[in-house]
Amino acid sequence: MISGLLIGLSKTGIPGAGFAAIPLVAMVIPARASTGVVLPMLIFGDFFAVIYYRRKASWVHLIRLLPWAATGIILGYMILRLAPGGRIWLDDLRLSRVIGTVILVLLVLNWWYQKSQREEARIPDYWWFAAGVGLLAGITTMMANAAGPILIIYLLAMRLPKIEFVGTAAWYFFLLNWFKVPFSTNLGFITLESLKLNLLVLPAITLGAFLGIFVLRKIPEKTFSVVIQIVAAAAAWKLIF
Predict the structure, then answer these.
(1) What pTM was computed for the model?
(2) Which of 23, 45, 115, 216 would bridge 11 by S-S if both were Cys, CB 3.0 to 4.6 A apart?
């Protein structure tokens, strides 16, 4: 229920807050099985986000990211599918540390870039930046539902206003989480039993989504940017240690 509340909050209010939901679920459900439990929870939260922020997304950034992210999802699926006995050289612990390190490095680079540039400085729109973030986010979301902090870094670098920030993230995850469903089902992550558990937490996700809308209305732009950077850094630290 706590995980569901955090996921709802992250989808409509504080992007990245739901990342704490993943280790919470993994505390009571084995890691591979927890991936299949979390995905439908994320999708339900996505519904609230795209309905409320349906006209607020920056499709220019989405078009740049989505093809690369979809490719990353396929690569992540192939890694999991081809692993003998479901085991991979990059186990849960190593994967978590890699993701966490990448997030911290990106946070530092983004902080340095913002400090070294003037307010009117050109927003970075290099194709390789979108490609790298998209691929990394796709692989990590397929393997560990851990793309949230990575997307946060990209959207921070694009300097989107808070409403457009959340709207863009909403459509990004809505489309890609549905894209992941066939792959997760094929891997045995999503089952009838996992879906029954999802039904129990729907009220908590709903409550979190409405809470997120309220929070986003109240929080100032600068505070929003600081909060999501802190959330991303905390998530990265947790992943590493």
Answers:
(1) 0.82
(2) 45
Residue 87 in tokens:
């085991």
Domain boundaries defined on the chain? 2-240
Secondary structure tally for the chain: helices H, strands E: 10, 0
AA letter at 38: V
Euclidean distance between CA atoms 152 and 136, whole angstroms: 13
For the chain, report the end-to-end CA distance as a whole number of angstroms: 25
Give the closest residue to 141 by CA, choosing from 207, 52, 80.
80
The secondary structure of 118-140 as a DSSP string is -TTPPPP--HHHHHHHHHHHHHH
Which mean pLDDT values do the consecutive 10-residue runs of the chain (241 residues) have? 91 81 75 82 94 92 95 90 58 67 73 60 71 90 80 85 92 95 91 92 96 91 81 75 76
Residues in the chain: 241
Distances (CA, A) of 219 to 163, 173, 209, 211, 227: 11, 23, 16, 12, 10
